[in-house]
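Hello forum,

I keep getting stuck at the same step: I have a sequence, I want structure tokens, and every attempt I make locally crashes halfway through. Rather than fight my setup again tonight, could one of you with a working pipeline run this one for me? It's a single chain of 161 residues.
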Amino acid sequence: MRVLTEATMMMATMTTKRELLRAEDAGWSELIELVESLTPAEMEQPGYFPEGWSVKDLLAHIASWQAEAGQILEQIRMGTYRGRPVDVEAMNKRFYEANKDLPLSIVKAEAWAARNRMLAEWSELPEVTPEAEEWFRESGPEHYEEHLGRLREWVAELRAA
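Reply #2:
Ran it on my machine without issues. Output:
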């Protein structure tokens, strides 16, 4: 049986943090490349989702979850996180309503700011708890992956039109 020293555990945590950061960066890079390949009018054109979402709405949706993750990661880091059930559908609706009328420039600025805060809080964590990893994965790399397929399709549809 191998005894893990504190240094060994920190090394394992740092590797996990680096791996997750690489996955987050790769997903974000592809997402932003696709978004930025569109004109402002295309970014605001409904059709990304049948419910009428635009790429702007998608970006606001992702930013909202990143902002939430930034807050949760800060609470975890400070030792004040108490966990709570998350009603994803209710939060998605609340986020959409809060952002749908914002100008594209504001949504883009908020997306970058929310991501930067999430990354800063992630980097400041002294250890990666299961809750921290879940919030980071689900608000970053896994969330991007969830939306990239449709975003690729929608960009192709817009290009073909």
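The chain has seven helices and no strands. If your local run keeps crashing, start a new thread with the error log.
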